[in-house]
Design a protein that fits this description.
mainly alpha, Arc Repressor Mutant, subunit A, about 10% strand
Length: about 160
Amino acid sequence: MSSQDRVGMFVEQWRRERPDLDPSPMAVIGRMRRVSDEFTRELIENYRRFGLGEGEFDVLCALRRAGAPFALSQGDIAAHTVVTAGATSKRVDRLEATGLVTRSQRTDDARGRIVELTPEGRALIDDAYPAHLQLENQLLSPLDDTERRHLEALLRKLVRD
């Protein structure tokens, strides 16, 4: 069997050196990690074009897809972006400092804060999100529509949330 990539070469080497073990999971997990790392690098580069980091992009997306009035509690943002409350607070701090969101007290909870997109924040995410989708389509371009649906179904089986 000839390897077409580095992961394939590693699998072949393990098969040769430890024929008593089955390295086939490595063929899947290793490639998933490499794809994830490569895609993440490209996505982060795209976020930077809009002056955003990955976390800030995630917060703006959560607020925008929430619909009018484009506001969520910090706890809801943390849940939508799957990060800690502390990380969410830091992301919101950065977005607030650049005028992309505002923060206000909740009327029903003195400890809670509501984060809302500003018009500038909404305009930015309305520009950045289509560029994000275009890049995602480009990254998946080696796959046809049937392959994408099949891959999505397989990955859904592996997601643990």
